[in-house]
Amino acid sequence: MAQCYFELRKQSARGSDSIIADMMRHLHTRQYIGRALVVCDQPTVMLSAARKQWLKLARTIQKQRASTLNADKILKYTHAIVYMQRLRFSSRSPLDDPEGDVCFVTPDQITVTPLQCFTIYLAAPIDREIMVTNLIDQLPAEALLVDYGHNDGWEKYGLQPKHLLEKRVIDEWTQVERFFTKYKIDIQALSTGTMGDVEAMDDALDTVLGISHQFLQIANSFQHALEIARPLHLSQHTRRQYDALSLLAHRVQALSSEAFTQRFLEAYNEDDTFFLYDATRQVLFGYGESLAEAVGRHLQAGRANLAIALRRSYMGRSLSPMTKPI
Known about the structure:
The protein has 326 residues and is of the alpha/beta class.
């Protein structure tokens, strides 16, 4: 059996609606890594309530997109909205509906898991022997079982607590910090929430473009650990640092010949506790400039790698989607 993990979770208020709301917030942080299975007593009822909560979250993101002029955030929010709208909810078993992304089933319907199912939500009592035989043995490595019944003893069946996944994030971040120290990149300067981030980000981008393959290996390893450990309760300071790494990696991919993945676009500015608190974020306003002006500015600042990458990637195309506000 592949190594899987468990999380004992409870809703913040009574009633089935609160479970569904918490479940959808939880799923939102894990939606990109794979499919999900919800074990409950009334699949049709739960599915209907879940869709309402999902649409509510999507509307919140639409409002966030409308409230910013930051091109990176607009791109991230647009991608998230499209992805959420395409997610398929199903009240049939994975055998009957193999295309379902989030399947709601009763304990009696449990036979197989969806392909690439990385999250199972238990919202109904279930026989553990059946659970292990019919489901857990089929899960991919690093999948997560979320138990709303707070049943202890999952270690007996080979599952490990989720905090071990969270510890791996810390360990991987240590590797990121060592990489930045080696190449004299100040991660603190990339995540101050001020206009100074722009210059610091450009300096860092120029550095890592010269070692893009090595950098993306480090960033990918960290991002994978972060994805499978979600949701996480992060301080605003830590979240800004993680966001800065994701944004830097996204830009390196866009300006280099490395194979492109959606991973960093999906992760950028992700709030892992999703609306459980209301943190204030500053928006950086960009002003459009021509490609020649941008290349010249970076050459003057000594950023030859960035200047060459911009010229190669944007020659004949508009450099910036934003124009100066009137």
